[in-house]
Amino acid sequence: MLVNIRMALKALTQNRLQAALTLLGMSVGVAMVVIVSGLGRGAQLRIESQIESAGPTRITIRPGNFVPAGVDSNGEQDSGGGEPGEGSVATGASGDGSEMPDVTKDEAVVDARRRIRAVKRTRYKSPPTPIGAIEIALVKAMPNVKSVAGEMQGNASLDPGATVPAAIVRVSGFDPDWPDMTGWKTIEGRLPTGGEHRDAAPVALVTPGVAKRLWPDVPSPVGKILPIGGKQTRIVGVINTGAESAGGVVVPMVYVPNSLGKILLGRDNYDTVTVRTTSIAVTSAVAKELKAKLRTVHGLPDDMADDFRVETQSNAALPGMGSDPRLARAVHSNSKGFEEASWVEMAKSLRQAGRTFTYLLAGAAAVSLLVGGIGVMNIMLVSVAARTREIGLRMALGARTTDVMAQFLVEAVTLAALGGLIGLGLGGAGLFVTEYGFHWATAVSPIMLVVAVAMAGITGVAFGFGPARAAAHLDPVIALRSE
């Protein structure tokens, strides 16, 4: 094989111009594969990021469960207000004599009847089970969960001698994933590191409004010390949380790692736990599974209502204040079905659009590789025609048909592989210019790079097989007599 590779490289250097043009065609084809795949993946990731930022991938868990009047048999809010019950589905003939469709096998109808016939949840657990480390570990182990973050809040007194115009602060504990999930922006300084979260390091974050309130005459609060609960807590960053008014109107809000918050507040349970799912298509399913697992962990029998609340952002966005209670209950009770119908269908549509876009890009790349493959076949046919006497001499000296065929196949694959490597460089340069020159979203997949080079090699084999086979089946006598 090494001999064939050396012979292939030597043969290519003898026809430098033809080899260079063929390499150019193959490299352009591979570069097209890299560029279109990078653009396609970048566009898909940007769309997914924009959808995630809209919020439908988040689920909030809170301890306790206030259930208003009008609940169904599962303890979920029901529509009430005189609407037909979920289980009253008519079948058979309608009033005008026409046949109504049989919906008894419809999935939604079956699910509604199942919930109507379920054991009524009339008992409530008081006090409710706190949400703590067990629940966090349970959620993290679930499939389709991207990240989990707990939050706790409480007032804490500043130690005597504090040089700030405040006696107490509002401590808000957060986990490492919380800033990314809620879209915090670092204005100055930094966020706590993973080690500081793990070791309960005395570090904290403040918003610009709180910083101005606590240190009105200081240009930057970074490095300042807040003595809280015997901890000399250092301010390491200034952040924009998007909710400035909530953190500084009455009591200044200070954000600390949860590990430190547990010490300062003297408890280890969370006020809320926020879960981010991997896709909008699975949010409803994750919320449903999460409810079932939490009921098992909390040991709730069938006739006892949830002692927690699991709320997707679709439900959280439905305010009930200022509206007719019956309307609020009707909208809330049907929001789960709306959420599944809308977000799941949207996810399916996005996946279908992504597949269509990928197919179009793959078609364009395939045409480019086809052009490169034709160039490989052309130079191999020229090479066979120019080296007919050499082929006859090799066969006369004992070379087998397979040896000759392997020689020319190795030449074709070598030519295609070199073109593929050059194409990777050209494709990378093209993506760099596209991202930083035109500000388009790009993303490179290592797998796609390997696939691009492999496709170049396969193209070399496919288009080099014909010329190699023609060379291997030459008559040695006729080949030796050729000039």
Residue runs with pLDDT of under 50 for 5 or more positions: 67-95, 318-327, 329-335
**Computed CA radius of gyration, to the nearest angstrom:** 34 Å
The quaternary structure here is single chain
What's the tally of helices? 15
Structural class: alpha+beta
The strand order across the widest sheet is 10-5-4-11-1-12
The proportion of residues in beta strands is 5-15%
Give the number of DSSP strands. Answer: 12
Q: Give the N-terminus to C-terminus distance in angstroms.
A: 28 Å
What overall form do the CA principal axes indicate? elongated
- Sheet having the most strands: 6 strands, mixed
- pLDDT averaged residue by residue: 76
Helix fraction by DSSP (H/I, runs of at least 4): 40-55%
Give the SSE order as H and E letters: HHEEEHHEEHEHEHEEEHEHEHHHHHH
Describe this structure in words.
There is one protein chain. The strands form 3 sheets. Strands 10-5-4-11-1-12 form a 6-stranded mixed sheet. Strands 6, 7, 8 and 9 form a 4-stranded mixed sheet that branches. With 483 residues, the chain is of the alpha+beta class. The protein is built from 15 helices and 12 strands.
